[in-house]
Amino acid sequence: MTKPLFEMRQVEVSYNGEPVVFDMNLKLDKGEVLGIVGESGSGKSTLAKAAMGLLGSEGSVTKGSIIFKGNTLLDMSKESLRRLRGPHMGMIFQNCESALCPLRTIGDQLFEALQEHGQRNRKDAREQALVMFKKMNLHDGNRILKSYPFELSGGMNQRVGIAMAMMFKPELLIADEPTSALDVISQAKVVEEITSLREEYGISMVIITHNIGLVSKIADKIAVMHQGRLVEYGDAGAVINNPKEDYTQKLIQSVPRIRKG
Ligand SMILES: Nc1ncnc2c1ncn2[C@@H]1O[C@H](COP(=O)(O)OP(=O)(O)OP(=O)(O)O)[C@@H](O)[C@H]1O
């Protein structure tokens, strides 16, 4: 039996010693898409940050283990984790604009991120960026590279953030509410763009959202969180069409007409 690409075993996460996520058990095989859904405050972002080693000084994993390709992340040094982030495990944030530095151009930030992971040639980096921008429907790539984040629209910054994460073609991409800062039409387009890039590069993904409708279209498995706990977890079709928990039914009822075929 092949080992999962990513796994959480009995994970508890706390802020300042106070647990907010309890007994999380999840598995993701290579090429799979896992949707994590739940209402605001259920612990979804905390889980994503724990997986990426980005909990900050107040937060820590207080029980269990998080395993990526057979390596226990909690045992890794900060430097090894830093090297893993980007080329192996990528992250897309809810608001990519706030993750970008306001004082430097997109091009400088992009090159710096690639340089940190061994890409030294600025011309190659630029070409790679232009290709990825096009795939994200950002057609004026040269202008974007010269722009500061405040010179772009919210939707453009979000696409730039996604393109930057995708440029590394990571084995695992964790997307935390990747479309919630966008209007409904842009949301649908960005989901399509992410899905086609994922298919093209065979990237495994964890998509975190409060909108079960969004993951119903693209996830293979769905995990439902409520008050820091996993309340339902299984194949997306089974969770959507035959939810066992009342809470999942309520989430589904809050979205008009979704069905997984
Ligand atoms: N830095 C922090 N310090 C203390 N408590 C925190 C911190 N960040 C989050 N929490 C708490 O952890 C719990 C889970 O929050 P989290 O942001 O993970 O939920 P979420 O499901 O991602 O919500 P949302 O959909 O609104 O982003 C909440 O009770 C929140 O108040």
Automatic annotation (TrEMBL):
Keywords: ATP-binding, Cell membrane, Membrane, Nucleotide-binding, Transport. It is a peripheral membrane protein. Gene3D superfamilies: P-loop containing nucleotide triphosphate hydrolases. GO terms for molecular function: ATP binding; ATP hydrolysis activity. GO terms for cellular component: plasma membrane. GO terms for biological process: peptide transport. InterPro entries: AAA+_ATPase (IPR003593), ABC_Ni/Peptide_Import (IPR050388), ABC_transporter-like_ATP-bd (IPR003439), Oligopep_ABC_C (IPR013563), P-loop_NTPase (IPR027417). It comes from the Bacteria. Residues 6-252 form the ABC transporter domain. It is found in: Cell membrane. CDD domains: ABC_NikE_OppD_transporters (cd03257). The keyword Membrane applies. Belongs to the ABC transporter superfamily. This is ABC-type dipeptide/oligopeptide/nickel transport system, ATPase component. It comes from Alkalibacter saccharofermentans DSM 14828. The lineage of its organism: Bacteria, Bacillati, Bacillota, Clostridia, Eubacteriales.
